[in-house]
């Protein structure tokens, strides 16, 4: 097919397996209000960047081009060619459909608390995926999980009990560089598990405590600066370790009458001296800013 945009007619109730298989130019699909069922492989091999759902559909909905069920508790399909490197699945989603993220371009994916099962093929052939964060509620991961996810380096799995795993064999060289971070009290349990423990085969030490991802420090590229009133300067914060789970930095000024700060950008207000503080986790770094007229 040479289709780029597809608006499906009202009255259509089902899209079956392979219906638009390998329509590589197809980038946008509008589903009709009448649609009741979409096969997980109905648009396999397509270049979809966006889904749209007609008003009145009782089974499906779309947010930012991503397809969900009507009440948005199930993520049905993330467009395989949607632009953007990272995605945080919204709170309230409890299920991932089969093929939900199959073949997407994402480098980072975060699933919320409440998700229990990753269905078959939901995380498969994600060729760019490097970071995957899974909640404590995960109980099972289906067939095809991690297949052709060869760039995957960091998997954070917060579940204390080992989820049932039906994915690809973790003992192969494809997973030499994949580190699994789990709750500290569960490290040995995962190492001894018949499926997850394979990450430590062949002399590897790839199952580690999630505590290693806690923030251990923060620095600023400048510890002092001088500005004239109305001038600005941008401070750059570096959080350690580089793969810290939460690298959020909050900024504050000890005297906002002298200088304000937002996102590291310091704006001089009036003559005086103030301390700009950047905080990550339990750690902070400061820069003394002097403002002249």
Condensed summary:
With 293 residues, the chain is mainly β. Helices cover 2% and strands 35% of the residues. It has one helix at 187-192; strands at residues 5-7, 14-15, 28-31, 37-38, 50-53, 60-63, 66-69, 74-77, 86-88, 95-96, 108-110, 117-118, 131-134, 140-141, 154-157, 164-165, 179-182, 207-209, 217-220, 224-228, 232-234, 237-240, 250-253, 259-262, 265-268, 272-280, 283-292.
Strand content: 35-45%
Question: In sequence order, what are the helices and strands, one letter per element?
Answer: EEEEEEEEEEEEEEEEEHEEEEEEEEEE
Please mark out the parts with pLDDT under 50 across 5 or more consecutive residues, or reply none.
none
Spatial strand arrangement across the major sheet: 6-7-8-10-12-14-16
Largest sheet: 7 strands, mixed
Oligomeric status? single chain
- Give Rg in angstroms: 24 Å
Mean pLDDT, as a whole number? 96
Q: What share of the residues lie within helices?
A: under 10%
Bulk shape: globular
Kindly name the structural category: mainly beta
Span of the ends, CA to CA: 67 Å
Tally of individual helices: 1
- Please provide the count of β strands: 27
Can you describe what's shown?
- With 293 residues, this protein is mainly β.
- The protein contains one helix and 27 strands.
- It has one helix at residues 187-192, and strands at residues 5-7, 14-15, 28-31, 37-38, 50-53, 60-63, 66-69, 74-77, 86-88, 95-96, 108-110, 117-118, 131-134, 140-141, 154-157, 164-165, 179-182, 207-209, 217-220, 224-228, 232-234, 237-240, 250-253, 259-262, 265-268, 272-280, 283-292.
- A seven-stranded mixed β-sheet has the order 6-7-8-10-12-14-16, with no helix packed on it. It has a six-stranded parallel β-sheet with strand order 9-11-13-15-17-18.
- Strand 6 (60-63) and strand 7 form a beta hairpin.
- It starts with a strand and ends with a strand.
